[in-house]
What we know:
Shape: globular
Number of domains: 1
Largest sheet: none
Distance between the termini: 39 Å
Helix content: over 70%
Radius of gyration: 17 Å
Amino acid sequence: MIKGLILGLQFLTRLPVNINVDYDRKNLTKATFYFPFIGMLIGAIAAIIYYVFSFINNDMAALCAVLSLVVTTGGLHMDGLSDTADGFFSSRPKEKILEIMKDSRVGAFGVIAIVMDLLFKYVVIKSMDKNMAMVYIILSSGISRTMVAMFFSFGKSPRKGGMGDMLINKDSKKYFIVSAIIFILVGAFIAKYNFLIVILTVIIFSLLFMRYSYKIIGGVTGDVFGANAELCEILALIGFVVAQKWI
């Protein structure tokens, strides 16, 4: 399981974990267990940055928190969001969409997706109550990576040999279920009903997004994992703000 943790950190972050671990299906399967908690670690780093700069103003704190999320992950999921936007909005046949998503070049829709992603996070974090912002950033990041683990465990790949084909593994289900239960209990303890409402909303969105991806390309790829992670993080942040105001 330690190898799974190390590989999970290396896969989801750019933290200096310089330990050689085989990048294989077995270790990736075990890594699934740690995804929610690695997500919380990513969020915790951003939350600390938010706190450090909050003495200046909310604008600076929110901007630095968003920058931290990008730097800590190396923009991993944002790259997937960009490629997915270019492919899904191209209005092309399945094979052409998959070809576009593999292309390293960024198109107009990809650029728009990245800009809107960063803008949404900045605006939402800026609007948060200072007393709860750090908690919500941490939990939103954890929720986002939990959805990545869900796609690993229950998705299907549209093509052989791609990133999604390697990552998707039905054996991940048991690790995902256990870690999801632990994460939900922790989240509910911290944020009570707000967390439960938000994670339920995000799960429903992820299932709908997975279904949409099946319709467009016949499955989910590594890029779709990343796109869903970014969208879920934004949705979770918005959900916490809305829940706090209404409940």
